Structures are given as structure tokens and as C-alpha cells.
Amino acid sequence: IVQPVMLGLQGNVVRLLGKDMREVGAGEVGELCVRGPLVMEGYLNRPEENAKVFEGGWLHTGDMAHMDSQGYLYLVDRAKDMIISGGFNVYPSEVENCLAQHPAVARSAVIGLPDAKWGEVVTAVVVVRPDSETTKEELIAHVVQHKGVLNAPKQVFFVSELPLTPLGKVDKKS
User: What is the separation of C-alpha 160 from the centre of its chain, rounded to a whole number of angstroms?
Assistant: First the structure.
């Protein structure tokens, strides 16, 4: 059983909870949930949203994380960004970090696209570095080697640039 993590002020507790509202074990990914005197009381005039966000008496942050055996938390991705392909959870940031290790990749965005068979398929949109070349097959093999076949993109699209937010982050909504 994962021990509660105390943050900053006494009485603030963080837990990683699975979809069944039970704590996940060390190394397992769960949603980062918090409880304490500094947690907001709710959204004004939004009872349906409050019921969802405060399920089980915890504020559900929407951040997915895992905890190591020493109690350190590691953020994985946002729950709403998670891709569910064939019943397996794929975290786009993990695939993007893997692609970033390939010498030909300047930047990437990983998204889930609807698929009749798998629900969603992992799709990478890639900007190749100037004076570099790579192929869809090479990038897929790179992800398979480092992250496994479940995380590997089924589709790869090459673009000259990705849209960015004013803060310089990839804007996946564009």
C-alpha cells in the first residue's frame, strides 16, 4: 500500500488513485489526487463538475503519475491526453520524449486518432532536423526498441513545423 505523501503544510495529503478509487502500488500509474486545507472548495455554480472533480472526497488533478519505492512522485502526463489503444494506456509525453532521443527528430507531437479496431491509434507528427533524414519505419522501430510495441506510433506524419502556444509549447489543439 502506498503511504500518503505530506506536502508542505501539515494536513495536505497526496495519493495516486486508480479508476476504482483505490491507491495504486509503487511503480503503477494513477491519478494524482489531493486533500487538505489548501484545496479549493469547488467550482461556482457547477455541481456536475464538482461531483466529478471531488469524487471520493479527493480533488482529482487530472495529472497521471507514479511513485517509486522511496516515495518520490513522477508526473507522466495529463489524463485527458492519455491515448487508449486496444485497451492499453499510452502516455503521449513518454512517446514524445523517446522520439526526442532520435538524432533526426527536432520536435514531435503524439496524439490519438480514432480507429474502428483499436479505439485510438498512436500517431506521431514529427519535424525533422535540418540536414537530417529519417523514415516512418525508422522512428517506429526506435520507439519499439526503447518503449515497446504498445507505445509505438502506428502512423507517422512529417511536417515542416508544429503550431506553438505563446509559451512555446506544442499546441495539439490546433
Answer: 25
